[in-house]
Amino acid sequence: MIVNKIESAINKQMNLELHSAYIYLSMSAYFDSINLDGFAHWMRLQAQEELGHSLKLYDYLLEREGTVELTAVKAPPAEWKSPLAACQDALKHERVNTKQINVLMELAFAANDHATRVFLQWFVTEQVEEEASASKLVEKVKLAKDDKGALFILDQELGKRLLTE
Ligand code: FEO
Questions:
Q1: Residue 148: inside a domain, yes or no?
Q2: How much is the pLDDT for 1?
Q3: How far is the C-alpha of 137 from the C-alpha of 74, rounded, in Å?
Q4: Does the Cβ of 20 fall within 6 Å of ligand 1?
Q5: How many CB atoms lie under 10 A from the CB of residue 132?
Q6: Which atom of ligand 1 sits closest to the CA of residue 130?
Q7: CA–CA dist 28, 43 (Å, integer)
Q8: How far is the CA of 53 from the centre of ligand 1 (A)?
Q9: Residues of the chain whose pLDDT is less than 50?
Q10: What is the pTM of this model?
């Protein structure tokens, strides 16, 4: 069994991961609309990863005999003023997500819920990677600046991304 406080926090995190998936899917549609297909592909895979993260939390709740509560997912923006603005938003969002994972981890510690603490370790590690890849993306877009050729090469590079976890 899982205590109510942790159950509710995990449900909240599940919602945040679904919101993340929405954000990245919306970014994917935005990049598609400006013909940056590689960026669109990268964002779409990111949305799939986020869905995977929410399902990890979903499965964990069920395993611990918790109750899954699917609440309304906040709508993401539909467009951004530039590729850089979208990528900066992605990084900002990942930083928020890291904060929330840390809050969840602290709750697990306070409740002596070692199973949840061990489970959350995967998310702590994942967030390091998530922030690093979003940050790298921002820096690469900054390097390209207004150089359409550089943006085109970056777009091709991002188009090669493969789905991981
Ligand atoms: Fe599920 Fe991008 O963190």
A1: yes
A2: 86
A3: 25
A4: yes
A5: 12
A6: 2
A7: 5
A8: 7
A9: none
A10: 0.96
Letter for the amino acid at 126? E
Q: What is the pLDDT of residue 92?
A: 98
Whole-angstrom Cα distance, residue 37 to residue 152?
10
Q: How far apart are CA 93 and CA 16, in angstroms?
A: 10
The answer to whether position 165 is within a domain reads no
Q: How far apart are CA 97 and CA 3, in angstroms?
A: 22
Q: Which two tokens stand for residue 10?
A: 């995990």
* CATH number for position 51: 1.20.1260.10
The reported pLDDT for the residue numbered 50 is 98
Say how many domains are in the chain.
1
Q: Is the CB of 54 under 6 A from ligand 1?
A: no
CA 8 to ligand 1 center in whole angstroms: 19
- Ligand 1 centroid distance, CA of 71 (Å): 18
Report whether residue 26 contacts ligand 1, using a CB cutoff of 6 Å. Answer: no
- What residue's CA is closest to ligand 1, atom 1? 50
Is ligand 1 within 6 A of the CB of residue 94?
yes
Residue at 163 is within a domain: no
Domain that holds residue 10: 4-158
